[in-house]
């Protein structure tokens, strides 16, 4: 954006990036009209020079903000026409107060202090004002009867006190926009009286042109075109489709919740069962092979042969038949025709049966 300020016999031109206005002007130029030259010609010459600088930086000027002080409407229109003859960019005429307020609102040093006590010079006339940068409004302004304040130490604090009383607001900082050599001392003294800091934002010498460019950028922002009548029908159809989609999704969610509730053993007809919010459905686990289950096999009872040696027996049991030293009668000695167990010996005695429980004795060779 390009800002042009014509005041006090000079032309000030600045280039400002409207996307980051807090950086202030990144290029500026001041031109003094030549002897006999009109202010309109000097302003047109400044526009040509700044357009070339912008082209060198690969930038295009979208709009030009112009503020002229002091001057009537005729002079302002002549300057705007002269600028329009040398550029294709739109020229926006900006009021001086609007340019000042736009500059103060964009200064990062003043972002936390919206209510300011401002000292300005307009055409050689000084003013003490209270402004609100948040609402872009001048709350009150006081000017002396003459062109300048008589004595800063007496008249300027009185004028600022009167402006504060008219505005009904307490300033948070003091700013001298048209700062000149010799103003620093009185400005700090006034800040001490008011109990506020004295702030000099970046780019104060070009504050009028900077503010004019910011206002022009604000005015040239693209505005959304009004939707045609057919667009309303499309919007209504889109809204109806959205409502239908929400209804379908809600029904599907209700069915899913009901299925989960029935799976858990509760039915909608059961008055004693309350439906609680169901957890999100989980993906089924992958199928696994059935684990082998041990089947108990009934034990078959096994007949156990009783051990003849397990029972206790008298020590006096005969053990002659198991004694290897005793003669074992043969079958012929048991009697005629009698052999095997139970045969009677020659002496008529029945030999004892062999004792299976008798301990074995080694046979002596």
Q: Explain this structure to me?
A:
With 365 residues, the protein is of the alpha/beta class. It has helices at 39-56, 73-84, 96-106, 155-167, 184-194, 207-219, 229-263, and strands at residues 2-7, 10-16, 25-31, 63-68, 90-93, 115-122, 125-132, 137-142, 173-176. The strands form 2 sheets. Strands 3-2-1-4-5 form a 5-stranded mixed β-sheet. Strands 8-7-6-9 form a 4-stranded mixed β-sheet, with helices on one face. The radius of gyration is 59 Å and the shape is extended. The protein starts with a strand and ends in a 102-residue tail after the last helix.
Number of strands: 9
End-to-end CA span: 139 Å
**Overall radius of gyration:** 59 Å
Query: Roughly how much helix do the residues carry, as a percent range?
Result: 25-40%
Task: Give the biggest sheet.
Answer: 5 strands, mixed
Can you write the helix and strand succession as a string?
Answer: EEEHEHEHEEEHEHHH
Instruction: Catalogue the unreliable spans.
Output: 224-230, 266-277, 330-344
Overall body shape: extended
* Strand order in the sheet with the most strands: 3-2-1-4-5
Mean pLDDT value: 73
Give the oligomeric state of the chains in this entry, treating copies of one chain as homo and distinct chains as hetero.
single chain
Tell me the β content. Answer: 15-25%
Number of helices: 7
Structural class: alpha/beta
């Amino acid at each position: 954006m390009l800002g042009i300020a014509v005041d006090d016999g000079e032309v000030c031109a600045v280039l400002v990036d409207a996307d980051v206005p807090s950086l202030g002007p990144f290029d500026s130029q001041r031109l003094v009209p030549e002897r006999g030259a009109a202010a309109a010609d000097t302003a047109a010459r400044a526009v040509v020079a700044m357009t070339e600088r912008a082209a060198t930086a690969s930038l295009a000027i979208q709009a030009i903000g112009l503020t002229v002080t002091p001057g009537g409407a005729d002079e302002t229109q002549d300057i705007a026409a002269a600028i329009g003859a040398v550029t294709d960019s739109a020229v926006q005429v900006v009021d001086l107060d609007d340019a000042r307020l736009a500059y103060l609102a964009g200064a990062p040093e003043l972002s936390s202090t919206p209510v300011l006590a401002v000292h300005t010079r307009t055409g050689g006339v000084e003013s003490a004002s209270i402004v609100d940068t948040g609402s872009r409004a001048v709350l009150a302004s006081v000017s002396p009867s003459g062109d300048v304040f008589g004595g800063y130490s007496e008249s300027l604090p009185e004028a600022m006190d009167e402006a504060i009383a008219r505005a009904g607001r307490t300033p948070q900082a003091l700013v001298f926009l048209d700062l000149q050599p010799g103003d620093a001392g009185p400005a700090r003294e006034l800040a001490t009286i008011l109990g506020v800091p004295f702030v000099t934002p970046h780019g104060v010498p070009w504050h009028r042109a900077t503010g004019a460019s910011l206002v022009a950028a604000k005015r040239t922002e693209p505005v959304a075109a009004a939707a045609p009548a057919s667009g309303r029908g499309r919007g209504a159809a889109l809204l109806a489709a959205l409502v239908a989609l929400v209804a379908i999704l809600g029904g599907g969610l209700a069915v899913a919740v009901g299925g989960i509730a029935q799976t858990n053993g509760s039915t909608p007809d059961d008055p004693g069962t309350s439906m609680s919010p169901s957890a999100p459905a989980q993906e089924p686990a992958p199928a696994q092979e059935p684990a082998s289950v041990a089947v108990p096999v009934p034990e078959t009872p096994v007949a156990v042969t009783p051990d003849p040696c397990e029972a206790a027996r008298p020590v006096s049991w005969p053990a002659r038949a198991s004694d290897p030293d005793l003669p074992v009668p043969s079958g012929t000695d048991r009697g005629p025709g009698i052999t095997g167990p139970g045969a009677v010996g020659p002496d008529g005695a029945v030999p004892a049966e062999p004792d299976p429980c008798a301990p074995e004795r080694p046979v002596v060779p």
